[in-house]
């Protein structure tokens, strides 16, 4: 209605057809220097003229968080992700004798083989961490760290402990996401010819990484009748499903990061236990392994769920 009124006024002033078209496109440009538009000085709400201010929702908080941290979040995620390998590599150095004797006594493999095992773990983990943080040969570093996980799963009999096995698989999911992040898409040999995005291995790496990450939370479920445990199980399961299927992925992953970090600091406070007690090393190992899963979730927040997800399919619908 405002545009029509302005057009009639300008027509009565005798402007030609070209000026009338310009008024229709941008009527404010044709106003005199001293005239003011009816909406001059009024600040428009996001979403266009006359739109109401958007309410503060979980998605808006997640978007604001990404805008503020988008330059630093991938670096923090990678640091968290490799933290358990870094801590374990350093521990191999300071506990060389204990680790060697444990492998020797468990497998009866002899001094030389046990020492080689410890040395391989030490060099493999520290070298992989340096390569990941320096962004050099990241894919080779990921495959090396995958090998370390497999080697430790067998050597320390984690294969028969369901809780530790699921946590190691979750750690592998974080490495899959790191591998997907570093993987450069190959150039098509037929330039300009559309390709199916779903066929990209990167998309399936992100899917596999998301699914494996949620295994960490399955180890945190408590099967008792208390109200807090029931509420925690319901909320945690819902968030795990959202991350796995890729629906509202960034918000769900960010919520899991906050929840898992709080649980980690509360239950795995190894700094409160004297160093000489075995529980100190156990909690320390658990703490940094959980931090690695947090790093994987932060990669999900930073990079998104990938092509094989409901969030991506919604764009096509």
Provide a descriptive summary of the structure in words.
The protein has 317 residues and is mostly helical. The chain is built from 14 helices and no strands. The chain has one domain (71-185, 202-309). Helices cover 68% and strands 0% of the residues. The two termini are 35 Å apart. Mean pLDDT is 79; it is low at 1-47 and 185-199.
How do you describe this structure in short?
The protein is mostly helical.
| Alpha-beta classification | mainly alpha
Biggest β-sheet: count, sense, barrel?
none
Mean pLDDT across every amino acid position = 79
- How many domains, as an integer? 1
Q: How much strand? A: under 5%
In DSSP terms, counting alpha (H) and pi (I) runs of 4 or more, how many helices? 14
Sequence of secondary-structure elements: HHHHHHHHHHHHHH
Distance between the termini: 35 Å
Shape: globular
Question: Total strand count, please?
Answer: 0
Q: Unreliable stretches, pLDDT < 50, 5 or more residues?
A: 1-47, 185-199
Helix proportion range = 55-70%
Write the layout of secondary structure elements.
Layout: H1 2-12, H2 17-25, H3 58-69, H4 73-94, H5 96-107, H6 111-134, H7 138-155, H8 162-182, H9 201-213, H10 215-218, H11 227-245, H12 249-267, H13 278-303, H14 310-316
Transmembrane segments: 110-133, 140-159, 227-247, 254-275, 287-308
Protein name: Surfeit locus protein 4
Family: Belongs to the SURF4 family.
